[in-house]
């Protein structure tokens, strides 16, 4: 039995993961900004679940959550950074305050959680930190520049973190889901109120009022949850776990396009050395 601390458990992938972890016999600290949304999980598993209020942008709540998790279960073995939300806007349309809040939640909130659990993990020389990213970090759709940037930052930070903590017996990994049938593209999706007509055929097509994909996404959150648990429990967890055919296909397309461009520009790129 291990203890999982999962942020953002009120709906979607976070809730599915919390349910799967608890049904698998593990302890789970299930969190949401409003505990009423997760109290049912704790009520169904009174011996193994702890429901706590958590806004990852609140340093005091972050510290208190980890402390109470350790007091109740002794340790946090697995941290899952799932709390976050989507934001759509052309880059020019994004409002500074909205973008700042997006980074505060999606990136800096995850960093705060990581820094809070690492002292205990370092002391035990064990632990897994799994951060939920998005295929958006790879494919960067028009209209999702800021959201994709938060996830790209999360991935780059996690790549360095993995190298730093691996010698200490700790694993850092990221999960890149494609489209899953959650509230992500519905209730949880925010967008700029400033729509510029020149972007109607690019970013504008992905505004909520123009995007019909909500409710039709191909991914099953319950299956994703089981695969995350499988990856975490494997002796050598991958750095990046892709979830969904669309994620795999999107990743491969971007990778191939980059390789083609790299090959075309390689002689130029290599020509910058000082003449011998």
How do the helices and strands line up, and which of them pair or pack?
Layout: E1 3-6, H1 12-23, E2 27-32, H2 39-44, E3 49-53, H3 59-73, E4 78-81, E5 86-88, H4 96-124, E6 127-132, H5 136-139, H6 145-165, E7 170-177, E8 189-191, H7 221-233, E9 240-243, H8 245-269
Rg, rounded, reads 20 Å
Our estimate of the beta-strand percent is 15-25%
Please name the CATH architecture. Answer: 3-Layer(aba) Sandwich
Secondary-structure element string: EHEHEHEEHEHHEEHEH
Q: Numbering strands along the chain, what is their spatial order in the largest sheet?
A: 3-2-1-4-6-7-9
Terminus-to-terminus distance: 61 Å
The level-1 CATH class: Alpha Beta
Largest sheet: 7 strands, parallel
Which regions have little confidence, pLDDT < 50, spanning 5+ residues? none
CATH H-level homologous superfamily name: NAD(P)-binding Rossmann-like Domain
Q: How many domain units?
A: 1
Structural class call reads alpha/beta
Q: Outline, from the CA principal axes? A: globular
What's the multimeric state? single chain
What average pLDDT do the residues reach? 94
- Count of beta strands: 9
Give the helix proportion (percent range). Answer: 40-55%
Describe the protein.
The chain has 276 residues and is an alpha/beta fold. It has a single domain (3-268), classed as Rossmann fold (3-Layer(aba) Sandwich), CATH 3.40.50. It has helices spanning 12-23, 39-44, 59-73, 96-124, 136-139, 145-165, 221-233, 245-269, and strands spanning 3-6, 27-32, 49-53, 78-81, 86-88, 127-132, 170-177, 189-191, 240-243. Strands 3-2-1-4-6-7-9 form a seven-stranded parallel sheet, sandwiched between helices. Strand 2 (27-32), helix 2 and strand 3 form a beta-alpha-beta unit. The longest helix is centred in the middle third of the chain and has 29 residues, at 96-124. The relative contact order is 0.13.
